[in-house]
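quick one if you have a minute, typing this from the bus. below you get a single protein, a line of residues and a line of whole numbers that encode the local backbone shape. could you go over both lines and see whether the tokens make sense for that sequence. anything you notice is useful, everything is just below.
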Amino acid sequence: MKKVVSTKQAPAAIGPYSQAIKVNGLVFTSGQVPIVPASGKIEANDIEGQAEQVLKNLEAVLAAAGSDFSKVVKATIFLKDLAHFAKVNEIYGSRFKSEPPARSCIQVSRLPLDCLVEIEMVAIAD
């Protein structure tokens, strides 16, 4: 059975979607952008700050679903500019010290709210 996952520790959905869906022992997160939940705004202007906030948001959504980064099996990173790949890779990699998930990284022409990075994940959920 499908269950909607929602937490106030991550930004509220800004459209007709859920923060995540939990089904058959898996959690599928929607793409997270670097909105700070408390302010509802993107506060960081640089790629490092935005990547950190995206991962904080994902951590909160995964926790609300009974999961965490150690249970992520697939991630997709969307970058406005692939020139930021090395910096995002370093920040992302700090969350996956061993057994990192499968991953794709794609440059896109534009992201919501003109942010620099968006990440979505699929993880095992308890």
